[in-house]
Amino acid sequence: MARGSAAAGQAPCPLTNRPPNSDLKNDVETRANPACFGRLPNLEKSGFDPRFETPGMPMRTDHNDSEEIARPGILISTELVEEHLRTDFWREATRPIYEISPIPGIGDQRLEGTLRSREISDLLIGPVTFNAQRYIRDRRIISWSGLDHYLVAVVAAGNIKADLTGAHIAGHPGDICVLDLTQTLRAEVAPGGTLSAFIPRDALAKATGYANLHGLLLSAHLPMTRLIADYLAGLNALEGQLSDDEAAAVQEALITTLAAALRGKLPRDTGDPPPLSIALRQRVLDFIGSNISNPELSPDFILRRFNVSRAHLYRAFVQDGGVSNAIRNRRLDAAFLQLTRNDARPKPVSEIAHMLGFPDGNQLLRGFRARFGMTPSEARRERSSGQLPDNLQKHFIKFGTILPRY
Q: Which of 55, 199, 282, 371 is deepest in the core (most CB within 10 A)?
């Protein structure tokens, strides 16, 4: 979706005396001033459904102790930075979600887009627009970002084509795509937009019996799809703040409704483990995460800790290639995070290997290359630019403008 630069002669920001398209990324004064937003993309011309836009509304300040503290909305737009900075800006702003690049041979090779986000309880909701782009979410991004969420995207304009490790989906206007951000994907999008919601993975997984939801698509013609799309649009357009109880109820209602629609899309015979094995798997994964640096962590150690048979443990982890594979992958993910930290003294690979229970650095090197497609040294160089905040909205604030709208 092509977007031109601001019209010549447009008034500069009254606070900074800078043109509307100047780089706002590091300008604290300009962030707080909506008069400096400049000309935003014309979403109606692009085919974007105006129901998904966020109305202007001053932030309420008359909350009492039972209400949430006001959570500001965030706007990120490539139109708010210099044209030559837009591609790199959009890549960095969206980096926790995807590695984004232009689609070769299609239109302008610059990346452009806008993203608005607001928090409601543990949800993050907002409209996104984009030109033609290619998305990749691989093991490197998954480990670095640490996002343990489902991304639920209502296609408002354009289309989405995704390859999910051999499975293919195609989303068109009105469809809802569900993506598990702990799994890999490759996708291409045509110029258009979505209304997206980041939902805590564990909450939706529990509501759907821990089924694999990655790549499920709710078709636009289904009544439940339209109901969910309207509900998300209503949340996005919500004015003012909700109390903690109200926000929790809003989240629960969305998850319950979405889970009911998704359960109807699951095949009857999925080959998934029975409920007891699913519950055991989750408990064991939590235990592995808490004991990742314990040198005694092994299948036998887990068998003794949980007092289960080897056959039962195997059934619970059959889709992971066994519990040994699950332990190794968790340790490799932890090694990736250690290698890419820039807030502490860099540790030698051999020290990281010993700390995470690998017999030696060579075994870590082999497993690391197989999982991430790079060596530990390459990972350290690639991600040395910075760490992701512990909250996605905090990351967006680094690149965005605070909207006094909610």
A: 199
Pick left, alpha or beta for residue 158 (phi over 0 → left; psi -120 to 50 → alpha; otherwise beta): left
Q: Which CATH class is domain 28-53+74-268?
A: mainly beta
Q: Which two tokens stand for residue 190?
A: 């045509």
Architecture of the domain made up of 275-382: Orthogonal Bundle (1.10)
Kindly report the pTM of this predicted structure.
Answer: 0.77
Instruction: Give the model confidence (pLDDT) of 315-343 as tens digits.
Output: 889 888 899 999 999 999 999 988 887 76
Give just the sign of the alpha carbon dihedral 391, 397, 399, 402: positive
DSSP letters for 141-181: HHHHH---EEEEEEEEES-EEEEETTEEEEE-TT-EEEEET
User: What are the structural domain ranges in the chain?
Assistant: 28-53+74-268, 275-382
pLDDT of res. 118: 93
The answer to whether 150 and 181 have CB atoms below 8 angstroms apart is: yes
Selection from 10, 7, 21, 149 nearest residue 89 by Cα: 21
pLDDT digits (tens, 9 = 90+) for 364-393: 999 999 999 899 988 888 765 556 667 899
